[in-house]
Amino acid sequence: MKYEWRKQEKNLYIPKQKPELVTIPEQKFFLIKGKGNPNEHEFAEKIGVLYSLAYAVRMMPKQGYTPDGYYEYTVYPLEGIWDLTEKGRELDTLNKDELLYTIMIRQPDFVTTEIVERAFENVEKKKPHPFLNDVTFDIFQDGLSVQMLHIGPYDDEPKSFELMNEFIKNNNLERTSLQHREIYLSDFRKVEPAKLKTVLRYKVKSIE
């Protein structure tokens, strides 16, 4: 039976349209960092190389190698950690050219350093990519977080962030970072902006 994150991990990926508290466990990711406007071509290219690696892992059994502990699964969605440069924080309005980002795709727990190396080798052989060497593999454990589902254009996210900030204030919590995480449940190339579904998440801690 195929492992589907939408069903098995609904608490992490299918939240309600209102803020809620959740604890994020340790997770493994392919990731790549960058700076600038996500509407630029470079951003799309970086997304492409992440998916190439993610599917290289997913398809290994069909390429003649089955990793230890492998199971059928649905590839995880694209995620992004967003921040601003010092210059960007000083501005009254958002300048997307001053955005700092880490985009990433989660990997199943069975993925090891050896599997990662094989994935890189497979992508290099099949279709070399200019950003391949910029991708790294890392483990994150966000722990206590506040999240909610945002439906609509990305530019309308501040409305949801206001709700999250109010929830944090009312529940004796505080953010532990100025960064925030986004999980993209919709393909922006195929879904109209009004129907885009995005999980928004802040890392927080309790105030003593």
Automatic annotation (TrEMBL):
Residue ranges of domain GyrI-like small molecule binding in the record: 18-199
Quote the InterPro entries the UniProt record gives: GyrI-like, GyrI-like_CCH_Lin2189-like, Reg_factor_effector_dom_sf
Pfam families in UniProt: GyrI-like
- Per its record, how is this protein called by name? GyrI-like small molecule binding domain-containing protein
Q: Which organism is it from?
A: Viridibacillus arenosi FSL R5-213
